[in-house]
Amino acid sequence: MEYRLDKRSGNELSVLGMGCMRLPRKGTGIDMQLTELILLEAFERGVNYFDTAYSYGGSEEALGEIVERNNLRQHVYIASKLPHGKCRTIDDVERLFTTSLERLRTDYLDYYLIHNIVMASQWQRLVDLGIDEWIAQKKESGAIRRIGFSFHGGMAEFRELLDAYDWDLVQIQYNYVNEHYQAGREGSELAASRGIPVVVMEPLLGGRLAAGLPEGTVHAFESAVPGRSPASWGLRWLFDQPQVTVVLSGMNSTEMLHENIDTAASTAPGSMTESERVAIREAKAAFEESFKVPCTGCNYCMPCSKGISIPSLFAAYNESFSLGWRTGFFHYMMSVGVTSGAPRLATSCVNCGACVKKCPQHINVPERMADVAHRLQPPGVNTALKLANPILSHW
Questions:
Q1: Are 162 and 194 in contact (CB under 8 A)?
Q2: Which structural domain range is residue 359 located in?
Q3: Which of 115, 279, 292, 337 measures 20 to 30 Å from 219, CA to CA?
Q4: Pairing mode, strands 25-26 and 29-30
Q5: How far is CA 209 from CA 28, 217, 323, 378, in A?
Q6: Cα 322 from Cα 327, distance rounded (Å)
Q7: Is residue 275 domain-shared with residue 325, that is, in the same domain?
Q8: Do residues 271 and 374 both lie within one domain?
Q9: One domain, residues 168 and 129
């Protein structure tokens, strides 16, 4: 296993982290026997970073039970997350944090993240509740060792968040298809330039970059290195980048675990050859042939006067064709900030045209935004969002 330094804490973190959102299921619950087998083997083979969250049904409890039973607490780093939408007072923050500690059977967290931030205003709302003082108290007591946030918004919001607080860690969605989606490469490099560790989630888009890829993408990979799996290619692309500290993978089988660990052990920063980099570019180009909007994610169109994350919405729209409507719809909902209580939808576009003048691809943004709305905001979605907003804003 390769380890990368968290310069803020001095922790040596395994470059491959265990994402505990998709633990193996059995019936309506978590398959504890298989989960324990996977987690223990991951630990034995060098994985020391385990990521969970209050909102990952049963995950904190499962991880806590297994870590306690096997006396692993002093040998692993545990990260969990605060569902900020559930917080109306600082007492709610305390209650949710305490619940996570109880579930995890520990009296401290190595890393505690504000979960699913999409807008800087969400963090400011917590500041208004007094969370900065609360964090300081928890750090002083040792109950929280390091504080961070997981992010699903646009680059402008990410930059604003980095400036708003002295963060110890950030977690972003990043992969070779989503290179310029949300925070993406620019965000990862910006955070790293400030000495902030970068944890990557969705490196394979929930497995969608491991199977079912376009024929041209598979051909590009197979021509470069016969027999190497698409999953290994996707992980290697991330491990190769020095600004990436940890790559989370929701490994729910021993086969997946073995392959990912072998990949992590053989890919140091800068180790990919030029021919491998060419293969990644060709694979991505083949993947993007199915894209309907030729947006490169350059962000020249930003900021939008209405707060719309234009590149992210176009990325979700394109993915609804290349990866399936459900995937695109999910990413669209995340990108508009559906959990924020004030989503910035494609239909929020007022056709001002400012973005059109700045787009190097000469995309008629308002016109294509209408296409996004037509595909990803079908009849009934707006009504459903209004009805669901009280629930979603607490997620």
A1: yes
A2: 310-392
A3: 292
A4: antiparallel
A5: 27, 10, 9, 27
A6: 9
A7: no
A8: no
A9: yes
Q: List b or e across 331-346, with b for residues whose CB sees 16 or more CB atoms inside 10 angstroms.
A: bbbbbbbbbbbebbbb
What residues pair up with 248 in beta bridges, in sequence order? 17
Domain-located, residue 298:
no
Residue for token digits 């620019």? 186
Classify strands 49-51 and 77-82 as parallel, antiparallel or unpaired: parallel
What is the pLDDT, as a whole number, of residue 336?
85
Rounded CA separation 251/21 (Å): 10
Please indicate, yes or no, whether residues 209 and 358 belong to a single structural domain of this protein.
no
Alpha carbon distance 311, 319 (integer Å): 12
With beta carbons less than 8 A apart as the criterion, state whether 191 and 198 touch: yes
The token duo for 342 is: 């004030």
H helix or E strand, kind and range, residue 147 = strand 144-151
Confidence of residue 387 (pLDDT cuts 50, 70, 90): low
Flag whether 296 is in a domain: no
Range scoring the smallest mean pLDDT among 81-95, 107-121, 245-259, 318-332: 318-332
**Residue 52: inside a domain:** yes
What does the radius of gyration of the chain's CA atoms come to, in whole angstroms?
21
Judge if 367 and 242 occupy the same domain: no
